[in-house]
Every structure is written in structure tokens, then in C-alpha cells.
């Protein structure tokens, strides 16, 4: 018995699409689901977000055309036949597969369209978890479905589902051609959909905006915030937090007022503690550069003229997406552009606010993403395309000479008076000063080390003044109050630096919040695009 060409075409394409979507989807999920890294060796690597989206749209098209096929099969495809009869058990399995596939497609649309589609009526974390669970169940469904047919019909089932009947060839080809047209139209409709507009409001040059984290100028109260539902971050409630953004510009500078929900003010950045064996860095993942316990809160913004998926196409997933470069320690991937020239229009701007290391400098750390850099001998962490803008002066340092997971030697320790006033020997780590100022500390020597076992000190040293030069282009300050961070920042619309992206019409932005985590930040699928009002 042979099935008609339309069915064979759809079924074969369905198998291919489901496999590609599951493989790419699980690799994407591995960024914020550590358990998926156990399967990392079976998953693809590289720039996968666009492929996952394209195959997802094709799968959505196939689901719609299959519904059409089922409804009109008797009228247009009279030669269509079933492959024998199905047991009640197998019918339940097929129903499970249909349900999971529908849930995957629906939740995928929600995650892609985000606030443009459902306006936050459904928690983003719930949608993300539903998408993941449906994928896991579908992974189980595949062998159950195939196994049931194999047990019932044996190896002959393979020739039945892959070799089509020659009957009604014209009708089948017409149906397939129509399906391809529908898929192309749907893909163009979704792929070419403009990003959500982020309105930049005009303000007079004489209007003074104080970058102090209060955002209490009257002009801010007149602007409705743009809400971005971000997901997939560590330590947030269900991995999600809403980011609220307002933007002003006066023809010279741009001003951002950004707030996000965070239940705790996290300033406990990799403290060092005195033990019987010496000083130890308190960490729970820092050795793999994926700390999620002893870390400061952070916030990042990516700015690019390229509005592609995955932070302007810079996210390349997997433990070793670059064959000729070192693997990353946490197995998640690297950020880099594919262009060899890192000083042209391919630059992707990256600003990072850090609650301990930069907030008291009153700046965001101005970085960029470019092409992968050369490997430097002796450097433990390879960062691919993630690089800092040049600076003229200014620095913060970590308070250890060489990092080792089993113990370190501090660079400097507090003066006695500071110890008595601020740190003590057993003050809880969350009550410590978040950093040590260079003028209040002295070089470490064993004879100075009179700290008791259990004493804890900050690891961040403010060595000199604030950054100066390109790396300090973004002025910023944030305050935490009542479960919410409020960050104010300012940067010139055009800095003139080859490492910065001008803030102009149609530039795209992505926002990410970190809740005392080093790399496990929240994200959103589609960027926001600047529109000057």
C-alpha cells in the first residue's frame, strides 16, 4: 500500500523539522538550564537562533497545511488511505504528540512576539517552562510513536511512509506548491515584522538631567515606560523580570531611565574568607566563570545597527563554537561577530553596569563585541569577541595575587582602624563594605594577618580613580529600593569612537538583567528599535 504524495511530503518534512527544532532548541535552552549541558555532546554548536526560528516558522506552516489537508482530504485527495488501524494505546500517543506540538508552536510564538503579542498577561517564565516541558515530552513521543508502528507492521512500514503513490499526482503537486507559498508568506510576515519601537523623546538642551539614580526630574513622569518581558536568568522569580525603559535626547546626549524588579540588593561580590588553611574565595561556580551565588547585580545593554536574532547575531552557542579557539569553561558559548575587522561598522556596542565594580565610579563599563581575538598564552579565560573599550586611566582590581580554587593570597588588607569600624572579624558577608578603597588598605604580609578564622573581606579593590577615556563614555548610577533597581545613564548620541555605535534612528537594543550572577542573565527574543519623537 502506498500513501499519496502530499502525506509523504508532509510527514517526511515534519520528521526533519522536529529533529532540527529539538536539537537547536535544547542547545538554546542549555544557556539557562544546566541539566541540558549533560547532553551537550549530542547538540549542534554555533549561531543557531535564526535557524531555530526559520525551522519553527516552517513547522508552523506545516501544521496549518496539515490541518487543511485533514479537513479537505476526502474532497481533493480521494486516494488518501490510512496505514492500517491504530490501537487505542497508539491513538493516545498520537494525541499526546499533537498536543505537545501545538503547545510548542503556541509558546514559541509567545516567546518570539513577547509583549507585542500578549502584553504580559501570561507570565513569561510560565511560557518558557511550558515550551521546555513540551519539547521534553515530544522527545519521548518520537520513539513511542515510531515504535508502535514498527511493532505492528515491522520493517515494511518504512517503505510505506517514504514511497508515495503515483495517483492524483497533479492534485498532490498543487497542494505541495500551495503549502510552500503559504510558508513563504508566513515567514516573510514574521521575519520582516519591524522590531518594537523604543521612543526617544525630545528634551530641551537647557533641561538638566542629574544622573543620580532617583529619576525625579518632572520630565520622566510625563513619559510612559516601554516594558520588556525578559526571561531565562538565574535567581529571578521564574527566571524572569520586567525591564521598564524611558529615553530622552537633547540633540547631543541621550538619557536612559531603566528599572527592573529584583528582590534583593546583591553587593556581595566574591568575598574572601579566612580559613584554617588560609584565605579562600567564596564561590559557587566562579571557577567555571558561571558564578550564581557570590556575585553582584548587573545590567547590560547591547546596541547595534544589526537587528538580527541573538544580540545582533553575536551569540554563538556551545562549549566550542570556534574550532580553532579554546572551549569556554561553562559550556554555554561565546559572543563574537563574524567580521575580521573589529573597528568598522560590524562593531556591536556593549554597556555593563556593575553594582560593586562600576556603580561608585558612576559609569557603565563601555565594552564592545567584535571578531574573535587571538589566544593569549597564560590567560585562563578566553573571551572571544567580548572586549573592553580602550581607557586612559582608572581601574578596579580583584584582591588576590593569583586565583586558585583551593586558596589565594590577598593583595591588600584593610588598615586596623577600618577593620574595627567597618568589617570586624565575623561580620556577615552581606553587611560588608562592597569594596575596599586603595587609600584605606595596605599591602598584605603574613605578619599583618591577625584576622580570626571566619573573617571575611571584600574582593574588589578601587585601585585608582574612575575610568577615563573610551571605556568611561557612559555615565551611570543606580539605586536599589523596595525590590527594584533604578538605573540612570547618559551617553553622547555620537561619541566619535570607532568602538561605539551612534545612537540614531533605527538602531536596535537588547536589555539583560543579572541577579547576583556572572553570566546567567535574562534576555528577550526580539530587539527594540530607536525611534526619535
3D structure, described in words:
The model is unreliable at 341-345 and 417-430 (pLDDT under 50). The chain has three domains: 5-191, Fumarate Reductase Cytochrome B subunit; 196-262 and 297-390 and 470-533, Sandwich (Immunoglobulin-like); 269-290 and 395-464, no CATH class. A hairpin with an 8-residue loop joins strand 10 and strand 11 (363-369). The chain has helices at 5-29, 49-76, 88-113, 115-118, 124-153, 157-162, 169-191, 218-221, 309-313, 416-423, and strands at 196-202, 226-230, 241-249, 253-261, 272-275, 278-281, 298-304, 315-317, 333-335, 348-354, 363-369, 386-388, 396-398, 412-414, 436-437, 441-443, 456-457, 460-462, 474-481, 484-492, 508-514, 528-532. Strands 1-3-4-20-19-11-10-7-21-22 form a ten-stranded mixed beta barrel. It has a three-stranded antiparallel β-sheet with strand order 6-5-17, with no helix packed on it. Strands 13-18-15 form a three-stranded mixed β-sheet, with no helix packed on it. The chain is built from ten helices and 22 strands. By secondary structure, it is an alpha+beta fold.
